[in-house]
Specification:
By secondary structure, the chain is mostly helical. It has four helices and three strands; from the N terminus they run βαααβαβ. The longest helix is centred in the middle third of the chain and has 11 residues. The protein starts with 12 loop residues before the first strand and ends in a 17-residue tail after the last strand.
Length: 107
């Protein structure tokens, strides 16, 4: 696994999609807080950080949970508020559910 924000390899903390969306609504953006490598920030097209945020709130990336490394998690946590921290689980603590593929309808 890799961090869904900075692409750092390794397991991290699984953050539910709705908690991530709420954090982004409250102002979290990895392009502005040092989570993203500077080379990625420099290559981002104008307006990309805002499009990233919109996708995390209500776009394609708002439907699935996020794997977040400890470095990014330390910058994300202040945007959760007090009740959200209990719903985030480390990858090793969360059982891995197998997802059926569209063609496995008979299983």
């Amino acid at each position: 696994m890799v961090c869904d924000i900075c692409s750092q390899p390794g397991s991290g903390t699984i953050v539910p999609a709705n908690k991530m969306s709420n954090a982004v609504r409250k102002g979290f953006n990895p392009f502005y807080n040092g989570c993203m490598p500077q080379s990625v920030v420099n290559m981002a097209s104008p307006g990309f950080p805002e499009r990233w945020a919109q996708s995390a709130i209500s776009g394609d990336t708002s439907y699935s949970d996020w794997n977040i490394c400890s470095r990014c998690m330390s910058k994300l946590t202040p945007y959760f508020g007090s009740s959200s921290s209990s719903s985030a689980k480390t990858v090793k603590d969360q059982p891995r559910a197998k997802t059926k593929k569209w063609w496995q309808f008979w299983i």
